[in-house]
Amino acid sequence: MSKQKTKMLLSGNEAIARGILEAGVDIAAAYPGTPSTEIMGTIAIFGKETGMHAEWSINEKVAFEVALGASWSGLRSFTAAKHVGLNVAADSFFTAALFGGMKGGFVMTIADDPSFHSSQNEQDTRMYALAAHAICMEPSTPQEALDMIKYAYEFSEKWESLVILRSTTRLSHSRGPVELGEIPPNKDNHKGEFVKDPAKFVCLPGNARRTKPLLLAKMEELKDYACNSKWNVVEEGKDPLLIITSGVSYTYVKDAIQEMGINPTIYKIGFSNPLPEAKIIEFLKKHPKCLIAEEVEPYLELNVKALAAENRIQVKIYGRKEKVIPISNELNPLILIEAISKVMDKKVEGIDEKLPTLGEINEQLPNRPPELCAGCPHRATYYAIKRASRKRSLKPIMPGDIGCYTLGFMPPLNSVDTTVAMGASIGIANGIAQATNQVVIPVIGDSTFFHTGIPPLINAIVNNAKFTLVIMDNRTTAMTGFQPTPETGKGAFGDPTGIVTIEQVVKGLGIKNLHIIDPYDLDNAIDVIGKTLDSGELSVIISRRDCALEYIRKMRKAKKELDKYYTDEEICIGCRTCVRSFACPAITFDDEKKKSHVDESMCMGCGVCRILCPVDAFTKR
Amino acid sequence: MTKLDKSYQIEIAGVGGTGVLTAANLIGNAALISDVYIAQSEIHGMAQRGGVVNTEIRLGPISGPLIPDGGADVLLSFELGETARAIRKLNPKTGFVIMNSHKIIPPSLSAKKGTKYPEVEDILSIITKFTDKVYTIDAYELATQAGDTRTQNVVLVGALFATPGFPLTKESLEKSLNIRFKGNEKIVATNMKAFELGYNKMKELMK
């Protein structure tokens, strides 16, 4: 990324990262999570030369606290998370929003995921901002994201408040041209000083009680400030319709009205908590109809309706509640065209109704769910657990967790019985083990274990819960793009760091029944898992093998050839064991020849198929 | 900056690992170099593990990053079956399709006895309800000729650049390729070859 002013094609996340560098931020800390990951990822690539500190923290709560501590020490600080990451950090977030006292600017980007592209829910961070009385801003384009984050630092320092910059998937992962500003010259150092002020930083009830009215007064004052904010923009139109919108929804509104050739008044809200109430009231009074276009909860809608009711304004307000806009999921220009048409009683020409619907088309196509990669060690681990269990006629309950290995849910593995939240596999295993006499095998990844898996494991020890925990250690945080784990020994900038291994933690907790297996060594893995299950004790198995994608990358870098397997068609008896029970994407089955077939462009040479084939038909090339 | 009088919208459909994001990035930077306004959306994360991956590129006088159903000027498909799944994005009056005949068969299909992956004719029977302007290219074959099957995406980008009315120049894409694979002359050369093969194939198909 250029140091100078120039124009680049950047994603929203890259633009936010650039804004952070241009704002001269001293400390950035985050835990990866789609769709927020590339913000820290970009800082990790370009931040080092500024002399700042950047880190992949152990979880979102710690990342938040790192940034808070730094801000209270007078440094500009930043944290980023996906929407559910804020749930992890929420305890500290609420208190920090209440106490404020930011000395260095403190901005956090929370990236929401309307339409569940990569998430378990579509919670709306603006509701958090409302509940915590926190400042919230919403950019619409990558350019605005860059400009807004620089402004947010000035604002945060002036008002001693933390600022949420709320993104959504379609901003974080959309690209647009961005005019870059300059990155300031490097400072001599990035150290501040923490000045003791316990009444400000210790959240005892007495201090909190004294602080709350101050916060509420500040938020009241900021309602007027919001009316004059340059981020709340009115575009006056001639039509009697008012559209209030925020974030990326604004761009869909613009596309829709261009397509329809209409000219409503648009109030685009970029500074969205607290809201510019006086301005909203003023515009509502001038228009008989108002449409609210926002993602994804009716945050603006409920507030605007309350203002209209309180002020007895004769305006009809349309939004999700009226089902003018679908109650869930992200918006798009077509939804806006349909919504505006309904509100304005206009007829809209849709796509020819005789054309097949997506549902009808999908019926004629095979499903294409996401799947574990060819050679993925997780597949081999799941397979080994299934084989070991079947040998003993066990039907274990397998609480799963969040990562690539959640895909063990898919057939034919069908090995994930619950997934709730980061670290929840072990917590739920505690519950099922206490509640039933069933065999319980929670499964968790390496990074997720460190994130929130350790407290529930301690809980099992001190409450006598019995289960066999399998920690799938692929030596990286794979799902989000290969960030380091505590076992990697490398920081965000690639510098050497201290190391914590999983076995150190498990042994340190006093768990003696601990085994380390290699899932590619399939027969041994099945044997060890079986014996561990036989023990009936609280036990831990670390299944350790590099992520297949990382392995391929390493081999490519070292200019080494991968092993490749092929089906010896003389030997293959067409029993389908490989495709039916293992389902490596590199292996297909030729129904005419009645033989399996290896796509050698996908095969990475793990050789597990060779071991599980009953007749040894897979052969190394 | 928006020099285009009319918007031009490209829907790219594919599967994780087929180079959808790289292709979008190449076209995106070509637009930036040409001073044409662009908004482009991507999907990351879980879907990338072998799932459906689409990206949308909008050039010219537009605002947001999403193409509405029926809005795309062209559907550029990197995998046979995914062409059908994305066809509703195409403008049925004026749009056209460039489709890779290469198949990527999901393993869940292989696991079931007697299930078949659709053939080119099956896909055509669906998409020709939307348009009869369909150009089928065996990008796997052409990418193999270029020297790397991973360049199927660039073969198809080459085909796109050969279509009349496409608003970006070949030169801008060449510059974009050089930025993307900076310093690796061999990769640039292989990709340029793939681009030319796709470009020429499309010219031939349109004769």
Residue share in helix of chain A: 25-40%
**What gap, in angstroms, lies between the N and C termini of chain B?**
34 Å
Number of helices of chain B: 8
Q: Domains counted in the coordinates of chain B: how many?
A: 1
Task: Return the domain count of chain A.
Answer: 4
CATH fold assignment of chain B: Pyruvate-ferredoxin Oxidoreductase, domain 3
SS-based structural class of chain B?
Answer: alpha/beta
What is the alpha-carbon Rg of chain A in Å? 27 Å
What is the overall pLDDT average of chain A? 96
Largest sheet of chain B, described in full?
Answer: 6 strands, mixed
The third-level CATH topology of the largest domain in chain A is Rossmann fold
How can the largest sheet of chain A be summarized? 7 strands, mixed
CATH class of chain B: Alpha Beta
Q: Give the N-terminus to C-terminus distance of chain A in angstroms.
A: 43 Å
Largest beta sheet of chain B: what is the strand line-up?
2-3-1-4-5-6
Widest β-sheet, arrangement of strands of chain A? 3-2-4-5-7-6-12
Largest protein-protein interface = A-B, 67 and 60 residues
Q: Which overall shape of chain B is indicated by the principal axes computed on the Cα atoms?
A: globular
> At the fourth CATH level, what is the homologous superfamily of chain B?
Pyruvate-ferredoxin oxidoreductase, PFOR, domain III
